[in-house]
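Limitations

Structures in this collection are predictions, not experimental determinations, and the ligand pose is part of the prediction. Treat each record accordingly. The example that follows, with magnesium ion as the small molecule, is included so readers can see exactly what is and is not provided: the inputs are given verbatim, and the output is the predicted complex.
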Amino acid sequence: MALDDDIERVLWTEQDISKRVSELASQITDDFTPSSSPPVLVGVATGAFLFLADLVKHIKLPIFVDFIRVESYGSGTQSNGAPKISFDLKLDIQGKHVILVEDIVDTGRTLSCLIAHLESKGASSVSVCSFLDKPARRKVQFELVGKGKFYRGFECPDYFVVGYGFDLAELYRNLPYVGVLKPELYL
Ligand code: 5GP
Ligand code: MG
Ligand code: MG
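Predicted complex:
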């Protein structure tokens, strides 16, 4: 298949992902059970769309789901400046526990911006559930709000990955696994 032919190496298969996502959902289910009001899971569009969909199916609790969009990258593989919220929440999160569902924490700039935004809207706690984490590239340390926790799927080596929501110029998001493209495709 043409899409698969562009991949040099698979980092996490569909099976790896589904196992890890259900583990994360069980942790969230355990951690939020005593909470009186259902947590709000906020998916960061577009990258987190598959992760959010898979995650919520395995959370055995009442939850709210919403989306937010933030622009931080152009079509290439490098950041092009300060992130900006371009599509905001529909739900009122005042006094609610929010779980921000992200595709990846890279420099940490997007996450810091989003956490500050959710805090300013009155969330009583902000947790982060990120599918991947690239700690080697961190430029900004983010701080959770209230009793918020940090959940992460996998630690990612310093490669630019595609698939399972991750794009290059908006393509490859629909691959069911995460991989690295052949080097000539990044040029
Ligand atoms: P940060 O603000 O933490 O530097 O960047 C976060 C955003 O950068 C992610 O939400 C994602 O859109 C993009 N990003 C960072 N690393 C990768 C990667 O390896 N592959 C893809 N496709 N996007 C990435
Ligand atoms: Mg993201
Ligand atoms: Mg992108």
